[in-house]
Design brief:
alpha/beta, five-stranded parallel β-sheet, S-adenosyl-L-methionine, EC 2.1.1.228, cytoplasm, tRNA processing, tRNA_m1G_MeTrfase_TrmD
Length: 271
């Protein structure tokens, strides 16, 4: 996979040289290219922003340097090759595991992390004519710029690529991963030693009984999801759960209503 980032703070992307992403780059699994947007400015101050039309606080990133930068980066690909252009913005669609999987299947991503009040809207409209342009948010909060979201999305996507994780099975039971614990948060995990500061290991994990262990893990996933993300339970079809699941959820205050959907009975939800 090729990944390009256009930014006014190239140094912010240094973490792309370490950990799993850095190793993927060194092995040639991931081709990361970071570009300084100011290279496409033509005044002595390397200006990339200006005041917004209509007034208001803050500054807006100018379309000219972005247009030249994107044209140069896109034209550097093979003839006819079109990248997915990703615009990190708090006003975009939520970044989810489903979207990470979609992006991991694409050969080329171009990120456009903005600063100030964002990029002139005409840039998005221009490139959306011939490219898949995704405006993406990593959460309901506002950051100083889009570089941190680029790091988040890159790591989420890169770990799905073949050859990045040491164990190819590692991501299959992730929270939000399809199959297995699909739609549930991952439960607690343990390793050696068997006792630490008076805390032991759940006996079922020492039993060697794979069926009981799988059931325990699913029960823990149900409990954690009910506690931390009740919206994920409320949005599910009860028919997706087996009888044991439904008993666990009933203990946690969830019941199937008359219209065949989940409803929460007022009660304390325990871990």
């Amino acid at each position: 996979m090729r990944l390009d980032v256009i930014t006014i703070f190239p140094e912010y992307l240094e973490p792309l040289n370490v950990s799993l992403v850095g190793k993927a780059r060194s092995r040639g699994v991931l081709d990361v290219r970071v570009h300084d947007l100011r290279e496409w400015t033509h005044d002595r101050h390397h200006t990339v922003d200006d005041t917004p039309y209509g007034g208001g606080p803050g500054m807006v990133m100018k379309p000219e340097p972005w247009g030249e930068a994107l044209d140069t980066v896109i034209d550097s690909g093979s003839p006819g090759e079109r990248p997915v252009v990703i615009v990190p913005t708090p006003s975009g669609r939520p970044f989810t595991q489903e979207l990470a999987i979609h992006l991991a299947a694409r050969p080329w991503l171009v990120f456009t992390p903005a600063r100030y009040e964002g990029i002139d809207r005409r840039v998005v409209e221009e490139y959306a004519r011939d490219h898949e342009v995704l405006e993406v948010s990593i959460g309901d909060y506002v950051l100083a710029g889009g570089e941190a979201p680029v790091l988040v999305m890159t790591e989420a996507v890169a770990r799905l690529l073949p050859g990045v994780l040491g164990n190819a099975e590692s991501h299959r039971d992730d929270s939000f991963a399809p199959g297995g614990m699909a739609g549930l948060l991952e439960g607690p995990v343990y390793t050696k030693p068997p006792e630490w500061r008076g805390h032991g290991i759940p006996e079922v994990l020492l039993s060697g009984h794979h069926g009981r262990i799988a059931r325990w893990r699913r029960d823990q996933a149900l409990r954690r999801t009910a506690r931390h993300r009740p919206d994920l339970i409320a949005g599910r079809d009860p028919a997706e759960f087996d009888a044991h699941d439904l008993r666990v959820l009933a203990e946690l205050g969830w019941d199937v209503t008359g219209d065949g959907r989940f409803g929460q009975v007022p009660a304390a939800v325990e871990e």
